[in-house]
Specification:
By secondary structure, the protein is an alpha+beta fold. Helix content is 30%, strand content 25%. It has a five-stranded antiparallel beta sheet. Strands 6-10-13-14-15 form a five-stranded antiparallel beta sheet, with no helix packed on it. The protein has a four-stranded antiparallel beta sheet with strand order 7-8-16-9, with no helix packed on it.
């Protein structure tokens, strides 16, 4: 069996099949092209194999036996490949991670790299380029149609290629929510006595300083803000580099904007200008709500 193609009679030669069919009075349909030698398979069947049988009479039975052995060798091979993959590849978010030092020591390297990376659409010709990533600086990558292999310190990260989402989400009022790729942003005005939760999944902002509508969008080159605790502005790109975010994490980074000012780099840091102060009476909570898969 190969995909949807089933060949249940490969074990038998033509003479045996004809003898069986005639003995049992079976009828069959003969493909007229079977007798033509224009096709490579027929040329081998009608010309090459008979010539070989003159020198090596048992070649057909030997080929059948060898085919069976190769099939079983393939089963052993694939089992071993699965074992090596399970030791090498670590699931990480929407992608996978492979430690460079472990991969470098696997033998035979080129064959196993082909088995690992062909799963993600990489060709044999791209394997030498992936090997160059072993000693490349962080941030270098090579892409297939659907995935990217990215060097990140001592790891190779296999990540889906992200198509930039151009949508801009508009928040007209405080009490609402916005659906993003893998989570929601929940906007809620809260009372002064409400306990402020300090974590990366929630931002509490001075509602009075915000101007609606707010915009939720992907960050862009040139974006800057004043990170909480800092008096000087900082480019979002530099901020993410300092956090050592991967290329995919950068591509997936959302920001919340008010009157052309960034108020929150979502899940990272709020802007100093919109922080809660002692006299703040009106507050806006923005919470990341993870959507169940």
């Amino acid at each position: 069996k190969s995909g949807n193609l089933i060949r249940p009679l490969l074990f038998a030669d033509r003479k045996s099949l004809l003898a069986y069919a005639n003995y049992h009075n079976l009828s069959w349909v003969e493909d007229s092209s079977n007798a033509e030698t224009n096709y490579t398979r027929n040329f081998i069947r009608h010309k090459v194999i008979p010539s070989l049988e003159e020198v090596f009479p048992v070649i057909k039975s030997t080929m059948i036996q060898s085919g069976k052995r190769f099939e079983e060798i393939e089963m052993i091979y694939q089992q071993k490949v699965r074992e090596i993959k399970s030791r090498l590849i670590i699931e990480k978010g929407q992608g996978f991670a492979i430690p460079v030092n472990k991969l470098k020591n696997v033998q035979p390297l080129d064959t196993l790299m082909h088995e690992v990376f062909s799963t993600y659409g990489f060709t044999t010709q791209q394997i030498p380029e992936i090997k160059k990533l072993f000693d490349a600086p962080t941030g270098k990558y090579i892409s297939s149609n659907q995935y990217r292999v990215l060097k990140n310190r001592d790891w190779l990260l296999i990540e889906p290629v992200v198509e930039h989402e151009q949508d801009i989400k508009i928040v007209e009022e405080p009490d609402t929510h916005v659906d993003l790729q893998t989570y929601q942003l929940v906007f809620k005005s809260i009372a002064t006595q409400h306990q402020i939760i300090s974590n990366e999944n929630q931002a509490t902002l001075n509602l009075k300083k915000l101007k609606f509508p707010l915009l939720v969008r992907k960050w862009r080159a040139g974006d800057y803000f004043y990170p909480l605790g800092m008096k000087k502005k900082k480019k979002v790109s530099r901020f993410m580099t300092d956090l050592k975010l991967t290329l995919t994490e950068k591509e997936n980074q959302w920001i919340v904007e008010s009157d052309k000012k960034i108020v929150w780099v979502v899940g990272r840091r709020i802007d100093e200008r919109f922080k809660i102060e002692e006299q703040t009476t009106e507050r806006l909570s923005i919470t990341i709500s993870r959507q169940s898969s």
